[in-house]
Amino acid sequence: MPQSAHEEYRGRLDRVREQMERTGVDCLLVGPSTDLLYLTGLEARQSERMKILMVPRDGEPRFVIPAFELPHLEALPPLFEAAPWEDGDQPAELLASLLPRNGKAATVAVGAQLHTHFTLRIQDAAPDARYVSGEAVLEAARMRKTPYEVATLRAASEAADRVFEQLIELPIEGRSERDVLAEIRRLLVANGHDALTGGGIVGFGANGASPHHHASERRAAAGDAAVVDYGGVLGGYHSDTTRTFHLGAPSDEFRTVYEIVAEANDAAVAAAGPGVTAEQVDRVARGVIERAGYGERFLHRTGHGIGLDGHEAPYLVAGDTTVLEEGMTFSIEPGVYLDGRFGVRIEDIVVVTADGVDRLNRSTHELMVV
Asked: Which positions ≥6 away from 174 have C-beta within 8 Å?
């Protein structure tokens, strides 16, 4: 990290508490999840044993954790105090005793990734508290990335770009979608990703017209369009990119559709920036495709936030009125999908800057013919 881990996580905790103040939340409960990773740096495994970080608006955070797991906390920034419990104890009652005013008339925000059976036990142990969703606290904090987070996302995107550049130098014709996906996954690791996300999309020909196609044994042939959508994890943060290329000479219609999608991507990038809403960016990308006559074949939202999760707020879709702010990171990925024929999608990750956005993916948008 460019600064000490203590300073980075202290800043995140302060940001969460600022949001708690704005929303009238007295304390926040976070279980094993990317929310917990965001606040502490701990990658904790969910189990039947309660592990919950309790963050009060005022006072020291407490981590309710099985006593034999205390060594897991030793390397973390010293921003909270452990509240250990032994097998046979009632951890929900322990947690309830730590809530502000023992939970009486307290507003308790519950992280969206906290398992329901723990939430129900806490509600039974502290029935006088008011329980609300933690999304208003956590999403607002996590959407605005720190410089460290942006730098890590940039490194992940640059690595994903290298994967595409290397992929199109390989012989593709005759290889199956599953084989090419396996090659992409190998290249992700070779280019610095330390973990792989599930799935990934490779669609040849008509299979590319399904936005979430599952890779099959379908083999690439001359005349096919190819859609590849992939990503992984580098330093805890996700990459995600989509490129479309062609095997052999493309048809005039394919070239036209490709140019429309590339224009929609550029228009959305140009429209995004501080003060613009997420749905406005979607509207701009969709408008380009609608005016070209393919509006009904743009089958999904324009983009999604990205960070410790591959998909997180904000979402570039009608109805998401989130006002974009400096430090927010998200995909811009318009597409056109023609059933039985081909699909085209171009996806870049961008970060909101003081006066617009900066693309984190820089691999070419030029139509590549292999």
From this structure: 219, 220, 221
The answer to whether the CB of 205 falls within 8 A of the CB of 225 is yes
Give the C-alpha separation, 330 to 44, whole Å: 26
Section 124-131 average pLDDT: 96
Domain spanning 144-359, CATH architecture: Alpha-Beta Complex (3.90)
- The answer to whether residues 316 and 281 touch, using CB atoms and an 8 Å cutoff, is yes
Cβ within 8 Å of residue 24, ≥6 positions away: 107
Distances (CA, A) of 148 to 49, 136, 204, 236, 237: 32, 23, 37, 12, 11
Q: What is the pLDDT of residues 309-354, one digit of tens each?
A: 999 999 999 999 999 999 999 999 999 999 999 999 999 999 999 9
Contact yes or no for 161/361 (Cβ under 8 A) = yes
Count CB atoms within 10 A of the CB of residue 70. Answer: 12
How many Cα atoms sit within 13 Å of 55 on the Cβ side? 27
Instruction: Indicate whether 65 pLDDT > 80.
Output: yes
Q: Does domain 5-142 have CATH number 3.40.50.2000?
A: no
pLDDT of res. 3: 56
To the nearest whole number, what is the mean pLDDT of the chain? 96
The CA–CA distances, whole Å, from 274 to 266, 312, 328 equal 17, 19, 9
pLDDT at 1 over 70: no
Phi-psi region of 340 (alpha: psi -120 to 50; beta: other; left: phi over 0): left
**pTM beyond 0.85:** yes
Other Cβ atoms within 10 Å of 117 Cβ, number:
9
Whole-angstrom distance between the N-terminal and C-terminal Cα of the chain? Answer: 40
Give the angle 365-367-370 at the CA atoms, nearest 5°.
125
Helix, strand, coil percentages for the chain (3-state, nearest 5):
40, 25, 40
